[in-house]
Amino acid sequence: MNKFITTIKNIFAIEDLRTRILNTLFFIAIYRLGSYVVLPGVDPSRLDNKSGGIFGILDTLLGGAFSHASIFALGIMPYISASIVLQLLTIAVPYFQKLQKEGESGRKKINQYTRLLTIPIVMAQSIGFIATINQDALVNPGMFFTVSTMVILTAGTLFCMWLGEKITDKGIGNGISMIIMIGIVSRFPGAILGEAAAKGMRGSLIFLIELAVLFFVVMGVIILTQAVRRIPVQYAKQVGGVSQINAQRQFIPLKVNAAGVMPIIFAQSLMFIPAIVASAWQQDSETATYIGQKFSDYTSWQYNLVFGILIVLFTYFYTAISVNPKQIADDLKRSGGFVPGVKPGDATSEYIDEVLTHITLPGALALALIAIFPAIALLFGVTRPFSAFYGGTSLIIMVGVVLDTMNQIESYLLMRHYDGMMKTGKLKGRTQNIALAS
Question: Rounded CA gap, 8 and 291, in Å?
Answer without folding.
Answer: 53
